[in-house]
Write a structure and sequence with these properties.
InterPro entries: DUF1997 (IPR018971). It comes from Phormidesmis priestleyi. This is DUF1997 domain-containing protein. With 181 residues, the chain is of the alpha+beta class. Helix 2 packs across helix 4. The radius of gyration is 19 Å and the shape is elongated. The model has no long low-confidence stretch (mean pLDDT 85).
């Protein structure tokens, strides 16, 4: 079994708005849509989302991960977790594959401004098919870690762009509605 892991942290400056970032984050589905495009998301319940990740190339294979991600509010912290991820079209591979995603995002007031701080960790363990047994293990590990880091960096960049943009639109439109007589 080969194990790959990656971790990314993020700090985002939050612009001042009429409504708080905590109120925005209490609508947990907004975080999901800030992380991935709506066309990639299927809502399974109020806090459970099926996300179809963009295809990944790994040592000659094209893999299509589909992950069930639970998102919930714990105090002021938004948490996300997934231990279920399937690779579309690779049923026999799925039996030898485990996945774990853990993450959080929490508001942190500072003297000058509000910030969001977060972190995400992914761990993947897999029994390689016989066709990959001859591939040098360091190459497999570097490639796997690179892919996971790439996924987390892409999510981080999208989160940094999309979350603040959506928050500003949400806060402006929500404050107009709440100020109506």
């Amino acid at each position: 079994m080969v194990r790959f892991s990656a971790s990314q942290s993020v700090t985002i400056s939050v612009p001042s708005q009429p409504l708080s970032i905590e109120a925005y984050l209490s609508e947990v589905e907004r975080l999901v849509y800030a992380l991935v495009d709506a066309s990639q998301v299927e809502v399974l319940s109020e806090s459970l989302f099926r996300v179809k990740v963009r295809p990944i190339r790994f040592i000659g294979l094209s893999l299509q991960p589909v992950c069930d991600i639970e998102v919930w509010l714990e105090g002021k912290t938004v948490r996300l977790s997934s231990n279920r991820c399937q690779l579309e079209g690779y049923d026999s591979f799925n039996e030898k594959f485990s996945f774990s995603l853990q993450g959080y995002l929490v508001p942190q007031p500072t003297q000058s401004a509000q910030k969001l701080r977060g972190q995400a960790n992914i761990i993947v363990s897999v029994d390689l098919p016989p066709s990959m047994w001859l591939t040098p293990r360091p190459l497999l590990e570097r490639t796997g870690k690179g892919i996971l880091n790439g996924i987390l960096i892409a999510l981080k960049q999208r989160l940094m762009r999309q979350l603040i943009k959506d928050y500003c639109v949400w806060a402006s439109s929500s404050s107009k509605v709440s100020s109506l007589p």
